[in-house]
């Protein structure tokens, strides 16, 4: 795995915390040159600082990026592909976590926010990077959720974005596969990240999440990062259009 990622160039969105940060560190540790982006500049700069402290010769860069902003995404991609430089892999991790609302209490603003980041953001990044992807050998890994394969009451909008992302990704796999560019999806369950709504609430919510899977604990961001690194590696060279649930054995 290490050899197949060494000296690759990987664009990561949502790199400022949680799964995005853990994956950035993992990929950089494996020798990949990482291009770190997040809407939170302080967060993504901290991720870059942590990458730079690793014993890895690979380069790092960080930038503030709102994936919902088409023009900003296109400008950023152009800036990292000057002189014909290729992108080997893209990790579409930027997203907005859910807030529980009954449908009749959901606002248009909430709908627009989740759709613009969770779906349109991936669309913007994908469309902008396709012309610059290594072909063959390139890959995308997109972040869905257990909410993308299991429906939950009071989270209809979030579920819609994450189910939609899986459909979008499977279509990507069919369209880009003939070029030798793979697309796969990770669907994390209850992961211990700062933006997880249950973690924010704490107490009984954390306990409920931990008991919600057969391993009886929350997942760690690093455990998702390991799967992402695998999907980008040559070890997963025949995986295309796959959805990997990382949920500790979800109950029910």
Automatic annotation (TrEMBL):
- Report the PROSITE patterns cross-referenced here: ADH_SHORT
InterPro entries membership? NAD(P)-bd_dom_sf, Sc_DH/Rdtase_CS, SDR_fam
Would the keyword Lipoprotein be found if you checked this record's keyword annotation? no
Transmembrane stretches, start-end:
none
UniProt keyword Ligase present: no
Q: Give the Gene3D superfamilies listed for this entry.
A: NAD(P)-binding Rossmann-like Domain
Please report the name of this protein according to its UniProt entry: Short-chain dehydrogenase/reductase-like protein SDR
From what organism does this protein derive? Phyllosticta citribraziliensis
């Amino acid at each position: 795995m290490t050899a197949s990622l060494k000296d690759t160039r990987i664009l990561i969105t949502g790199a400022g915390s949680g799964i995005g940060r853990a994956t950035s560190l993992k990929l950089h540790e494996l020798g990949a040159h990482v291009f770190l982006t997040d809407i939170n500049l302080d967060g993504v700069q901290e991720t870059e600082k942590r990458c730079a402290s690793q014993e890895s010769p690979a380069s790092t860069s960080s930038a503030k990026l709102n994936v919902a902003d088409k023009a900003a995404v296109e400008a950023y991609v152009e800036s990292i592909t000057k002189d014909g430089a290729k992108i080997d892999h893209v990790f579409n991790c930027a997203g907005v976590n859910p807030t529980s609302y009954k449908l009749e209490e959901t606002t248009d603003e909430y709908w627009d926010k989740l759709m613009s980041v969770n779906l349109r953001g991936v669309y913007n990044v994908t469309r902008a990077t396709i012309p610059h992807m290594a072909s063959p050998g390139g890959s995308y890994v997109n972040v869905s959720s257990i909410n993308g394969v299991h429906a939950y009451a009071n989270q209809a909008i979030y579920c819609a974005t994450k189910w939609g992302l899986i459909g979008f990704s499977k279509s990507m796999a069919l369209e880009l596969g003939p070029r030798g560019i793979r697309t796969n999806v990770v669907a994390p369950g209850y992961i211990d990240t700062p933006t997880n709504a249950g973690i924010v609430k704490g107490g009984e919510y954390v306990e409920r999440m931990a008991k919600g899977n057969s391993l009886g604990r929350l997942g760690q961001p690093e455990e998702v990062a390991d799967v992402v690194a695998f999907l980008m590696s040559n070890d997963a060279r025949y995986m295309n259009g796959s959805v990997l649930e990382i949920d500790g054995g979800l109950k029910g």
